Task: inverse folding
């Protein structure tokens, strides 16, 4: 297993030009473009200059993101970005009509759909996490993503147990991404890919984290590299 291929750098630049530059210089092979951090959406086509796999996201303020405009405008931005995206992230709690329309458009363009749920306050019980993942499957996700804030290591372990459960469940047929956020959740950035999470997110530099507890690419790549070398020894 090559772990560096599972590290996705999440970019939170305020301009398209800066996002393109940072993406092409980033050491990862896959990039998340957090469009909700952009100050101007008039030149989205320039993002096609990024020569890497791209996840397009535009997280609304009600889910902890930066986009404060109308929902139809947000979904329109994501729709316009499908032509140069490999994946698009849509929040589970997006208005169902808007969400389903975006999912349908993405699948027609062969763009992978990540249906996501974020909670920046807490980690729910195990049954609730699994229920959320199943709702994402029902929403036609190609990849189901959940991110919760951990108040202690036990809550981190709860999420990691859910990850191992769904990975071993033959009825759960799509990949999953799990993230435990915050100080206690930092360890999940390492554990999750080891336990089967499709991706783990990282920042390109210190101070550029898109979520609490996020490590840099270099930090994650080094730690996972050490663990991989130990496994091979």
Result:
């Amino acid at each position: 297993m090559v772990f560096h291929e599972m590290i996705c750098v999440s970019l939170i630049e305020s301009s398209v030009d800066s996002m393109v530059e940072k993406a092409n210089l980033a050491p990862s092979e896959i990039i998340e473009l957090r469009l909700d951090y952009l100050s101007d959406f008039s030149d989205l086509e320039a993002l096609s200059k990024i020569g890497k796999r791209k996840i397009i996201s535009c997280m609304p303020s009600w889910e902890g993101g930066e986009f404060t405009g109308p929902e139809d405008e947000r979904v329109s931005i994501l729709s316009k970005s499908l032509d140069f995206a490999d994946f698009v992230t849509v929040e589970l709690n997006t208005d169902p009509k808007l969400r389903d329309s975006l999912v349908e458009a993405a699948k027609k363009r062969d763009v992978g759909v990540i249906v996501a749920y974020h909670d920046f306050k807490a980690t729910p019980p195990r049954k609730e996490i699994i229920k959320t993942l199943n709702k994402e499957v029902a929403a036609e996700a190609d990849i189901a993503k959940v991110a919760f804030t951990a108040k202690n290591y036990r809550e981190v372990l709860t999420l990691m147990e859910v990850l191992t459960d769904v990975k071993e469940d033959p009825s759960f047929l799509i990949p999953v991404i799990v993230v435990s956020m915050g100080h206690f959740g930092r360890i999940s950035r390492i554990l999750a890919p080891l336990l089967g999470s499709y991706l783990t997110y990282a920042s390109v530099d210190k101070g550029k984290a898109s979520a609490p507890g996020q490590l840099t690419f270099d930090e994650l790549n080094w730690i996972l590299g050490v663990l991989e070398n130990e496994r091979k020894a």
Remarks:
- The chain has one domain: 3-232.
